[in-house]
Amino acid sequence: MLSLLVCAVVTTAFTRAVEETGKSRARAQETNQTVVGKKPGVAAANEPDPPVPPSPQPQPQPKPEEQWASAKEAVQQGDIRIRVKRVAVQKIPLSNLGRSTESEDDLLAVYLQVTNASKTKKADYLTWRGKPISIERDSATLQDNFDNVLKRINFGFGTEVVGGVQSTESIYPGKEVEDILVFEAPIDATEYVRLELPAANFGGTGNIRLQIPKDMIER
User: Fold this and answer.
1) Per-residue pLDDT tens for 37-86?
2) How many Cβ atoms are within 10 Å of 187's Cβ, its own excluded?
3) Is the distance from CB of 193 to CB of 212 less than 8 angstroms?
């Protein structure tokens, strides 16, 4: 009888652990982001309204993990707003132990603006370039439309990206910080790249997902 009771308890505990693991993975795949930028095609106040198109047929909604916002607009989760200011293939300005230098190769630089829209709460932001050593994922990933993963570039101990957040930074209410993420350069045939940012870096949940079209990439 006792063995049956122990078996039932172990089975219940195992089932709950599996359920919690599944929930954690689902949360990690969420975006929970809202587009806050001006959408293309919105008429100005002095322009006539465009003709109303026929109502489209209902389409199946994509799963949360498949949702990508255009990088031409800002997105927001909670009080934190993220905007891609510029994307360029270029030499990266660096500081090596106080000496100005630059990367040997042309690399992809993603310039981000992170704004705290709260009126009362300070936010702690960890750069998406990530920590040198981390147990949990804290760095950005980038992948093109051909499923090529573009490696995140680390320049090693003592070398910093000029203009980027070096580790963590406090963002006070109504203020913003700018950061620079660096990746391998995309191939010439790239149509877009998809940038995924762990929201935990600013105290959020899931991931921020932005799709950067080729016409935003300066070469």
Assistant:
1) 654 443 333 444 444 444 444 444 444 445 899 999 999 999 999 999 99
2) 10
3) yes
Cα 143 to Cα 72: distance, rounded to the nearest angstrom? 17
Tokens of 92: 């990266």
CB 141 within 8 A of CB 182: no
DSSP 2: H
pLDDT score recorded for residue 66? 56
The full DSSP string for 5-50 is HHHHHHHHHHHHHHHHHHHHHHHHH----EE-SPPTTPPPTTSPPP
Secondary structure (3-state) at 178: strand
CB contact at 8 A, 125 and 177 = yes
Q: How far apart are CA 29 and CA 175, in angstroms?
A: 28
* Cα three-residue angle 134-139-141, rounded to 5 degrees: 140
How far is residue 174's CA from residue 144's CA, in Å, rounded to a whole number? Answer: 34
- 51-63 in b/e burial notation, b at 16+ Cβ within 10 A? eeeeeeeeeeeee
Both tokens of 185, joined, read: 């350069």
pLDDT tens profile 85-126: 999 999 999 999 889 999 999 999 999 999 999 999 999 999
Place of tokens 């498949």: 66
Return the half-sphere exposure (C-beta side, CA atoms, 13 A cut-off) of residue 65.
5
CB distance 145 to 68 below 8 Å: no
